[in-house]
Amino acid sequence: MPNPCRPNRSGYKRPFNLALLALMAGVSPHAIARAAGSTQTDGRKPAATHAAQGAAPAPVKQATRDEAIVVEAKRRNQMQVSSGGQLGVLGNKKGIDVPFNIRSYNASLILNQQSQTLGQVLENDPSVRTTYGYGNFSEMFIIRGFQVYGDDVAINGLYGITPRQLVSPQLYDQVQVLNGASAFLNGAAPGGSAIGGNINLMFKHATDAPITRLTGDYTSSAMGGGSVDVGRRFGTDHAFGARINVAGMDGTDSIAHERRHSVAVGGDFDWHDDRTRVSLDMNFQNQGVNWGRPAIFLGADVTHVPRPVSPGANFGQPWTYNDLNYIFGMLNVEHDLSKHVTLYAAFGGLSGHEQGNYQVLTVNDASTGDSTNGNLYVPYVQTNKSTRGGVRAHFATGPVKHEINAGGSALWEESDSAYAYAWPYSSTNLYHPVYTGAPDQTLTGGNVANPQQISGTRLYSLFFSDTMSFFDNRVALTGGFRYQNLMVAGFDYNAPGRGARNADYDQGAITPVVGLVVHPTRQTSIYFNRIEGLSQGPTASGNVVNLGQVFPPYRSVQYEVGAKYDIGRFAASLAFYQISQPNSYTAAYGTSGQYIFTVDGMQRNRGAELNVNGELMPGLRFNGGATLIDADLRRTAGGLQNGHSAIGVPNYSINANIEYDLPFLRGGTITGRVVNTGKQWVNTANTLHLPVWTRFDLGARYTFVTAHKPVTLRFGVDNVGNARYWASAYGGYLLEGLPRTYKFSFTTDF
Predict the structure, then answer these.
(1) Nearest by Cα to 362 from 516, 94, 670, 134
(2) CB-based contacts of 132: which residues, under 8 Å, 6+ apart?
(3) Residue of 194, 162, 193, 190 lying closest to 413 (CA atoms)
(4) Class of CATH domain 67-749
(5) Are strands 452-470 and 475-491 parallel, antiparallel or unpaired?
(6) Taking the chain (750 residues) in consecutive chunks of 10 residues, what is each chunk's mean pLDDT?
(7) Per-residue exposure over 251-263, b if at least 16 CB sit within 10 Å of its own CB, e if not
(8) Helix, strand or coil, per DSSP, at residue 611
């Protein structure tokens, strides 16, 4: 059933379904038409009303107008998860038409759930779990049992231009999740991850309707913030657009003593005519954490998993912090040579400056909580440039329709860093922390005052694909390949200047793709794909004895088959897959209390995924699903761990998000979410594991009108039961779940 509010190709809304709006508002369609000024579909202003000519409006008409505003504002605030998104070289596609599993979470969901990081947005996805990076506070995402580093989150299909540790979601119109390998679609990920899936962000841009939106928010225990979102279109046919977003927060969050701050500023500009489309996005982001609660490691002699501390307790040290600054942006250009041929190009860049004093807490006795504190100060400077260009052509050869994609991409990345730490480690306790001052860091690598280059990455690729459609588009076959060349260099921390190379490889690979989609009906499809993943090898990071070691690149092969159902207001998909890659993790280094980053054997994941989203019945919306994963280790050293399960991969996960519009309170909506995660192994020997955990979230929002302007109030409670649990064991370290957290916000549109 078509959505009466969905924009058509010209950008204007289709004729509004007055009967539907009348039913929702409880008034007659004629009253709404009069209150809305007899909405016209050509974008022109309606004829002057009696009120405009000086006559006082009737009270009933004014009340009806406000009711219509409430209904419209309420619709804009609905949870929306769409099937489809940006598929790299294939462009923007509907989910039901492609042989891949992709969905998009929109800006209204981000706003209404009061998400402050990218990880909080992805708490809605049953196939994604979030943890921290090694020894720091950066978010890392697990899709199909494999990690996605912040370095490997894309923006509009372009790698290398996303802030690599924490992302402020207020700048983005969509957060898109692609499940599965994507080397052909997006190229090799520069950070060496994104084998099991890909996360892609889409910037906000000006819409046809003007936007002036003010939001204020509060998070327990004492963190406040807000945002301003302004968008306008100008000129003939609204050819020019501008969207400005400013967001920030500061204060103590729900973990004792942990303080967070962030500032995000985005300027997004675009222009179009009948044949050309240009957009320019420029952004600044600063985020930081002080006295953060870290993940914990288990000593080599620990025989059982320690019980989690009180959910709001902080065993971190007061001297821990990070401060992350990024300037990033991109330019996109598209030009139609004809109605069949389009040229496109994208250029992006990022300049990042990070510094942080991080804690590595190792528990040596799980019963008593006796632990040691490691520490590591790291300055990090990153300069990236990324580009993509190509041609997309549509034509027919007899009864067969073709969509040809051809082009290339390139990425240049340079990282400068150093480190300092203290030895020996100090003593503390997981359950009764011993807080100390910042330690004297006498052992260094590189120049911490002026970091030198430690790595350089050059990624070049060429791609070609042909999607052939048969039988009135009921069957589509995609075949293609990408040739990828990876040139990676590592440099010694302690050598002067640029230093001596300690890692160097220059390798090329061809990653093919085959995908098939069959439409039994227009609302259903069955699909299959064989696609490969290709990644730069991981680099040892954190407080490890082989810090900076660069491992060789690796490739993986994925097979996937699935089915989809999509009627617009409701969509569902079911997928079965197999994918594998080398297994990497951090392990204890003898009995010294130190750690080593290692790659050992092959991890083969098989699984099933169910995703459901949309309107189950009028006023009731659902988003969620379930995943099952069997993550086996193979080809391990000496065969000792063969057949064991991989570290930190839950055997199942379930998410369910519900919104219900209250029939007795116009503008009122209640929300709920449940997140359930299965057993996770902590070590490759499979002698330690995390138990199943479940978290419940509740919330409500109310939209009303004041001075003929819509206002939305929101209140939410995450982890209502204040459950105490270890959320993740990925990488071999434990991350505790957040405590009960209260959130309040208001939004008004001017």
Answers:
(1) 134
(2) 138, 139, 140, 294, 295, 728, 735
(3) 190
(4) mainly beta
(5) antiparallel
(6) 39 38 40 39 39 47 76 78 91 94 94 93 94 88 92 94 95 95 89 89 95 96 96 95 97 97 98 97 97 93 94 96 97 96 97 95 95 93 96 95 96 94 91 93 90 92 96 95 90 70 80 95 96 75 68 81 95 94 70 70 90 94 96 81 91 96 93 97 93 97 92 96 96 94 95
(7) ebbbbbbbbbbbb
(8) strand
Dig out the tokens for 737 from the structure.
């779940």
Q: Please give the angle made by the CA atoms of 532, 538 and 542, to the nearest 5 degrees.
A: 150
Q: What is the DSSP letter of 48?
A: P
Per residue, the 3-state secondary structure of 51-103, as one string, reads: CCCCCCCCHHHHHHHHHHHHHHHHHHCCCCEEEEEECHHHCEEEHHHCCCEEE
- Ramachandran angles phi, psi of 75, nearest 5°: -65, -40
Count how many residues are written for the chain.
750
Distance CA 151, CA 160 (A): 7
Q: What is the spatial distance between Cα 222 and Cα 281, in angstroms, rounded to a whole number?
A: 33
> Quick one: tokens of 500?
């001596």
Would you call 564 helix, strand, or coil by DSSP?
strand
Phi-psi region of 269 (alpha: psi -120 to 50; beta: other; left: phi over 0): beta
586-605 as b/e, with b when 16 or more CB fall inside 10 Å?
bbbbeeebbbbbbbbbbbbb
19 sits in which H/E element? helix 18-25
β-pair type (197-203, 154-155): parallel
Which residues fall within 8 angstroms of residue 664, CB to CB, at 6 or more apart? none
Total Cβ atoms within 10 A of residue 461: 26
Distance CA 745, CA 729 (A): 33
- Give dist(CA 612, CA 615) in Å, integer: 10
Structure-token match 């086996």, residue found:
632
> Would you say 175 and 105 are in contact if contact means Cβ atoms under 8 Å apart?
yes
Q: Record the pTM.
A: 0.87
Inter-residue contact 475 to 469 (CB < 8 Å): yes
- Please choose, from the candidates 112, 26, 78, 109, the residue with its C-alpha nearest in 3D space to the C-alpha of residue 661: 78
CB 155 within 8 A of CB 347: no
Asked if residues 723 and 693 have their Cβ atoms less than 8 Å apart, the reply is yes
Quote the CA–CA distance of 563 and 415 in Å, as a whole number: 43
